[in-house]
């Protein structure tokens, strides 16, 4: 049973936020509202009239449209073509459609140009095209599934501006998000979902993120801050002049140089697609550097294959756990073996040791609080957060020296997030070197000892996590600022700065600074 | 945990049972459409299976199907489609027959030599496709189909009297093998003889299971099949794995013709069975790539083959069996995918339900651990 006793009332002309942990049942609810899934019982009313949807087409006919988390646009078609595709009957595919698009775009301030190829658009523009697509089909109620997950702070502000426009024109928006701060800033009403049912509503003006989180998980909101510095001067990972080329000789990564010391978390900020994936691949050995060197402590590992790197203590929390971290249809204990098949307790020499692996899987499940009825269920049947906890447990169990943590808490609920942060902190205290890549800037700033910004395959800026704000980091991520980012004092900054503990973190940042400049 | 085990058995059995039921039903429709009795052919064929001489024939035939299907299954386990089993086993049987006719060692050496020859020939032939895929990115499907055709041409060439061929009447043969290379059968009295190679086929099945499920290599192979990207990230070298799997699959294919070659014909002639490699694909599919499943599937196929000639004597066409084989393969593909998806969804729901009911592994330990952790977070 995914959902039961759900009560949700969305008023006309408002933004209604739906928050809840992963696996709480938000997606199922949205699928029901959008006609992708049929409810077993209960009713849906639109404008007071009871309706029943058997497909998204029915939902659209009733004025309900959905903007998915993953965009559904054809790259090699223009915006006009993408919008008209599938709804050619509405306004044709020529001038009438173009005029309609311009009209909608102007009315809601979307700024969409109909004749641009979608592949030339950035993420934020694509999202606006998706919104326009839904409006074009006559939607009066929009469902946005985690719309801010792919945006930098400036883009989020622009999106919220758009949402306010929509609202003022009498449209309703259902806004699904993990990020409680955003929810509070944009929503008029909030409904909290937990364990498949609605557990409460909140009025944004009278609620703090902490209270909202308590409603979500029944516990305090975790914060990613690291308390004390554990950075040592012993380099664990040293990357020098790394360059990686695409097939045509175009540089995907160029001039990448950095050092991560034992006990240090180096945070890498950047808009997705700026070389993070390639850097991870180069570090784990899936792609081999065209020039430059990678060294693990004293050994050069540039030419090592993936397996050797993993055996020698490179842990890997992949950015896409379904593609790179799990065998979805295999039982949990086989997933525990994945990536460490040559190591104890999984193998004795040439032979697998299923008993020991199963035993150890039980340990991981308990220690890392993976919520599962057993270790023989498939990985696919766990929620995203629990899958991630299993991966973190697996990687930590082999005592890595260097950990690649790519979006370690993406799609993970608040409770699991706190645990994963704790485990990274714990290991860092014991001397682990971590490369943290994340789209969640609060996480990056809170967990990292050093921050770098990657843009277009190059490290273009560095910053001190103790003083930098997400907005300042965001401008470097779009390529607008380079070099050492200095925090500029603005009246609002004390509130933001208070999140970290500048007094403790500052000396360590100073100690790191010459290293960074030497690049 | 027992519940999930039972679940898995149910899922494993549901697919083939549904497929077989559908195939039987559709075949009956074909029979009705052609104005025949839709039930009698089955009773006739079931009756055949009770005769001991037919049973021996079925087992002998099944041993070849079994080996060929294992070869296909190794490829399937890592998403490689070796359609070339047919060419590989024929070429391997021919080379083994030639070696058997020209080398005369004591049986203790001769038999291993012949088996090794077949293994290597099969591996060599599939290895060509493997190397092409790894170095040039040629699809193994295309390469192995082409190699089948080339194998036929090579066999025709080797049959030339000026090469290794010996003409016996109108028949091309490779000459009779030396007797030290004949593998004695298991005497079943009047029913005939079960090929000695049946035992090796069983051992192969066991070996297949052990290698896949109990060795590091097997895990890597299965991981590659389940998710190429995850396997690469786990440290599997994808190219080496493709080549190894291709070689292994070819080596096993090489053995598929040996039961009859070493146990009965002792020469590679025009009468040598063909098409076993293609049948092996359907059998591996039906057997879900599991050694036991394949054994049942191979026996089923052999039964359809060996029991169907009887139909001709009762006014039915024996091709009914071929129609059935085809329908089974079709039904299998559809029903397995349906059952797989249904199973995954069902398990997801059940895991959700179990968790909601509080059946969490180690539930007694974790809440308290959780609490201290939370306090720690708050304390900071």
From TrEMBL, chain A:
It holds the Pfam family ABC_tran. The keyword Nucleotide-binding applies. SUPFAM superfamilies: P-loop containing nucleoside triphosphate hydrolases. CDD domains: ABC_Carb_Monos_I, ABC_Carb_Monos_II. Residues 1-220, 237-481 form the ABC transporter domain. Keywords: ATP-binding, Nucleotide-binding, Repeat, Transport. GO terms for molecular function: ATP binding; ATP hydrolysis activity. Residues 476-519 are annotated as: Disordered. Residues 502-511 have a biased composition (Low complexity). The keyword Nucleotide-binding applies. Transmembrane segments: none annotated. It comes from the Bacteria. This is Sugar ABC transporter ATP-binding protein. It comes from Streptomyces minutiscleroticus.
Automatic annotation (TrEMBL), chain B:
Signal peptide: none annotated. Pfam families: BPD_transp_2 (PF02653). It is found in: Cell membrane. It is a multi-pass membrane protein. Keywords: Cell membrane, Membrane, Transmembrane, Transmembrane helix. One of its GO terms (molecular function) is transmembrane transporter activity. This is ABC transporter permease. It comes from Streptomyces minutiscleroticus.
């Amino acid at each position: 049973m995914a959902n039961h006793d759900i009560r949700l009332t969305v008023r006309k002309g408002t933004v209604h936020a739906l928050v809840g942990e992963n696996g709480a049942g938000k997606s199922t609810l949205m699928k029901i509202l959008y006609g992708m899934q049929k409810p077993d019982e209960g009713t849906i009313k639109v404008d007071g009239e009871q309706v029943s949807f058997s497909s998204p087409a029915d939902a659209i006919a009733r004025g309900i449209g959905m903007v998915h988390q993953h965009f559904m646009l054809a790259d090699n078609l223009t915006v006009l073509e993408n919008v008209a595709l599938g709804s050619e009957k509405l306004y044709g595919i020529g001038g009438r459609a173009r005029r309609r698009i311009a009209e909608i775009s102007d009315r809601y301030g979307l700024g969409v140009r109909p004749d641009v190829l979608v592949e030339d658009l950035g993420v934020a523009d694509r999202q606006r095209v998706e919104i326009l697509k839904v409006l074009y089909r006559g939607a009066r109620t929009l469902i946005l599934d985690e719309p801010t997950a792919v945006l930098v702070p400036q883009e989020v502000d622009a999106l919220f501006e758009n949402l306010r426009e929509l609202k003022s024109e009498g449209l309703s928006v259902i806004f699904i998000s993990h990020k409680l701060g955003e929810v509070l800033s944009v929503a008029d009403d909030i409904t909290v979902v937990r364990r498949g049912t609605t557990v409460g509503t909140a009025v944004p003006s009278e609620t703090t993120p902490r209270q909202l989180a308590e409603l979500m998980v029944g516990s305090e909101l975790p914060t990613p801050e690291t308390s004390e510095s554990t950075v040592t001067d012993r380099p664990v990972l040293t990357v020098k002049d790394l360059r990686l080329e695409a097939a045509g000789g175009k540089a995907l990564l160029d001039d990448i140089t950095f050092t991560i010391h034992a006990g240090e978390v180096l945070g890498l900020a950047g808009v997705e697609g700026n070389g993070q994936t390639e850097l991870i691949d180069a570090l784990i050995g899936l792609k081999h550097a065209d020039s430059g060197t990678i060294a693990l402590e004293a050994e050069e590992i540039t030419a090592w294959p993936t397996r050797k790197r993993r055996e020698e203590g490179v842990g890997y929390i992949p950015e896409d756990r379904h593609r790179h971290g799990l065998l979805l249809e295999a039982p949990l204990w086989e997933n525990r073996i994945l990536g460490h098949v040559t190591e104890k307790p999984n193998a004795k020499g040439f032979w697998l040791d299923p008993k020991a692996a199963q035993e150890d899987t039980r340990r991981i499940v308990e220690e890392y609080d993976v919520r599962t009825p057993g270790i023989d269920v498939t990985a696919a049947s766990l929620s995203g957060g629990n899958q991630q906890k299993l991966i973190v447990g697996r990687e930590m169990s082999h005592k890595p020296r260097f950990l690649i943590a790519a979006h370690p808490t993406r799609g993970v609920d608040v409770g699991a997030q706190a645990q994963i942060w704790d485990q990274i902190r714990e290991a860092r205290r014991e001397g682990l070197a971590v490369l943290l890549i994340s789209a969640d800037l609060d996480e990056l700033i809170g967990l990292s000892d050093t921050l770098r910004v990657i843009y277009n395959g190059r490290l273009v800026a560095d910053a001190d996590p103790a003083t930098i704000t997400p907005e300042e980091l965001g401008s470097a991520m779009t390529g607008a600022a380079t070099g050492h980012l200095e925090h500029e004092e603005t009246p609002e900054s004390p509130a933001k700065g208070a999140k970290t503990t500048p007094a403790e973190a500052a000396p360590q940042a100073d100690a790191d600074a010459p290293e960074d400049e030497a690049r | 945990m027992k519940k999930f085990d039972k679940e898995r058995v149910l899922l494993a059995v549901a697919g083939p049972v549904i497929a077989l039921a559908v195939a039987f039903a559709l075949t009956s429709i074909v029979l009705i459409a052609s104005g025949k009795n839709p039930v009698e052919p089955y009773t006739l064929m079931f009756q055949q299976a009770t005769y001991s001489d037919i049973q021996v024939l079925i087992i002998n035939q099944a041993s070849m199907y079994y080996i060929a299907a294992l070869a296909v299954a190794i490829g399937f386990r890592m998403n490689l489609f070796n359609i070339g089993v047919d060419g590989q086993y024929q070429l391997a049987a021919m080379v083994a027959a030639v070696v058997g006719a020209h080398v005369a060692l004591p049986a203790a050496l001769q038999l291993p030599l012949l088996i090794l020859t077949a293994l290597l020939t099969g591996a060599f032939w599939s290895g060509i496709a493997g190397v092409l895929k790894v170095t040039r990115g040629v699809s193994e499907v295309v390469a192995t189909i082409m190699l089948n055709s080339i194998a036929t041409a090579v066999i025709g060439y080797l049959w030339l009297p000026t090469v290794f061929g010996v003409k016996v009447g109108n028949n091309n043969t490779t000459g009779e093998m030396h007797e030290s290379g004949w593998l004695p059968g298991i005497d079943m009295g009047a029913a005939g003889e079960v090929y000695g190679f049946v035992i090796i086929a069983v051992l192969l099945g066991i070996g297949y299971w052990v290698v896949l499920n109990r060795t590091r290599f097997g895990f890597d192979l299965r991981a590659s099949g389940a998710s190429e990207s995850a396997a690469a990230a786990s440290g599997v070298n994808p190219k080496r794995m493709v080549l190894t799997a291709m070689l292994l699959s070819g080596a096993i294919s090489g053995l598929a013709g040996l039961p009859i070659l070493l146990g009965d014909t002792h020469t590679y002639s025009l009468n040598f069975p063909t098409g076993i490699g293609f049948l092996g694909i359907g059998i591996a599919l039906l057997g879900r790539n599991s050694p036991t499943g394949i054994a049942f599937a191979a026996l089923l196929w052999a039964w359809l083959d060996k029991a169907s000639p009887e139909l001709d004597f009762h006014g039915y066409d024996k091709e009914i069996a071929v129609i059935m084989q085809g329908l089974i393969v079709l039904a299998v593909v559809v029903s397995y995918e349906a059952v797989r998806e249904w199973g995954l969804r069902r398990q997801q729901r059940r895991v959700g339900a179990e968790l909601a009911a509080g059946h969490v592994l180690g539930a007694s330990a974790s809440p308290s651990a959780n609490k201290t952790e939370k306090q720690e977070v708050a304390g900071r």
